[in-house]
Design brief:
Layout: E1 2-6, E2 9-13, H1 17-27, H2 30-40, H3 46-54, H4 58-67, H5 77-85, H6 89-98, H7 102-108, H8 120-129, H9 141-159, H10 162-173
Antiparallel strand pairs: 1-2
Length: 174
């Protein structure tokens, strides 16, 4: 049911729930969604969450995350994959702080097509969560150079720690 308010009268127009959800996800604002959600009591499924992620409706996802038991769906690799593909580091961080996504990161990166859509910033962020295995063969030439530079900077900074510095000095003396 789609409920529309005109001059303080409720007019009910009949829709099936899936088409109503699609309209809400694609075109509605957070306030419209809240109104319809609380009036009709729409149930949210894993596929609904994936659609919200595809439409980048993060404000609605934030709302639903605290309103309903939405965090249970973030234990699915497909949901995490769509989330990573949005390249929204802030929202991935929000989910990471509340749900263990570390287990899925390397499995997601096994898919060669993901490298066409994922940003280098997202790869850097994922690497900060867990050391990731980046398949450089799937990247474009420019991205390969950026990754190699990034990895060499990371390696250099690791060598700057005190214990590594002492080990390097001892090796140089030999």
């Amino acid at each position: 049911w789609w409920i529309h308010k005109i001059k303080n009268k409720l007019i009910k127009l009949k829709y099936n729930e899936s088409s109503l959800k699609n309209i809400l996800y694609e075109y509605s604002s957070l306030n419209t969604f809240k109104y319809v959600f609380t009036t009709i009591h729409i149930t949210i499924t894993k596929n609904d969450l994936i659609n919200l992620i595809k439409y980048k409706k993060f404000d609605i996802i934030y709302y639903l995350y605290f309103k309903v038991n939405l965090f249970k769906y973030f234990d699915d690799i497909n949901v995490i994959k769509y989330l990573v593909l949005t390249n929204n580091i802030y929202f991935v961080n929000f989910i990471h702080l509340r749900s263990p996504i570390n287990n899925y990161i390397n499995n997601i990166l096994l898919d060669k097509y993901i490298y066409k859509f994922i940003s280098l910033e997202m790869l850097k962020y994922l690497n900060s969560i867990e050391k990731i295995d980046i398949n450089i063969g799937f990247l474009s030439y420019a991205n390969r150079i950026d990754i190699l530079n990034w990895r060499s900077e990371e390696h250099t900074s690791e060598l700057q720690s005190h214990s590594d510095l002492v080990c390097r000095l001892l090796l140089e003396k030999k």
